[in-house]
Amino acid sequence: MRYLIAVFCLFLMSGCASQDEVIPKSNALKVGESVELTSVQGAKITIKRVEGGLVQEGKENTVLIFDIFGTFCEPCKKEAPALMNLQLKYISNMTLIGLSYFEEVDEKYIIENFAKPYNAHYFIAKNSAANKALADTIREDINYKSLISLPFKVVLKGGKYRTVTDIWENKTDNKYYIGAINTAVVEKDLERILKE
User: Fold this and answer.
1) Which domains can be identified in the chain, with CATH numbers?
2) How far apart are CA 96 and CA 155, in angstroms?
């Protein structure tokens, strides 16, 4: 019984993964390419591929956090309100972009089943080919060879991926968060990155 409880707890803490075991063909952006994202609420931003990373056009020095999530993902739902609070606290220095991944749901579904019930009113991009292109670009940029587990986050500043705290393997050069992460950890990293 203890073994089953331990396995269940590990699953809850580690995140959600796609049922598809094969990493799909990459559709990564090339340097100089841009994609326009439209949020589920109708706002628009443009993300540009630069050497070594991504920037938000017009806010090239703003910190970008990409949160690759799924509306079905329990850890994603659990952390959404805290991510919203983080976005509000750092509104002038940081843009949080939610990219729905591994599912084909429309903006109404995302609003009704994720944004409203979990107070996730930060920039959540409508499902589009741009979401996959950005996820593929991120995977390639950080040399992430595995299938993405959800939630999955990266932090960039000035077009460069920044190192973040690794709570699972204690690496010092980690460039992503995977699974459920306490937003206090994210905020501590964000404070350091803003000073860099």
Assistant:
1) 24-195 (3.40.30.10)
2) 9
64: its two tokens: 């970008």
Give, for 37, the enclosing helix (H) or strand (E).
strand 34-38
Look at the pTM and tell me if it is higher than 0.85. yes
Residues 102, 70: Cα–Cα separation, whole Å: 7
pLDDT tens column, 96-115: 999 997 899 999 999 999 99
Long-range pairs of 70-73 with CB within 8 A, sequence gap ≥ 24: 70/16, 70/100, 70/101, 70/102, 70/103, 70/150, 71/100, 71/103, 71/105, 71/109, 71/110, 71/113, 71/114, 72/16, 72/103, 73/15, 73/16, 73/150, 73/151
**At what angle are helices 2-14 and 74-89 packed, to 10 degrees?**
40
Closest CA to 153 of 88, 85, 92, 79: 79
CA distances from 136 to 64, 76, 93, 133 (A): 16, 20, 25, 5
The answer to whether the CB of 122 falls within 8 A of the CB of 96 is yes
Angle between helices 74-89 and 183-195 (to 10 degrees): 40
Instruction: Dump pLDDT digits (tens) for 26-73.
Output: 889 999 999 999 999 999 999 999 999 999 999 999 999 999 999 999
CB 100 within 8 A of CB 70: yes
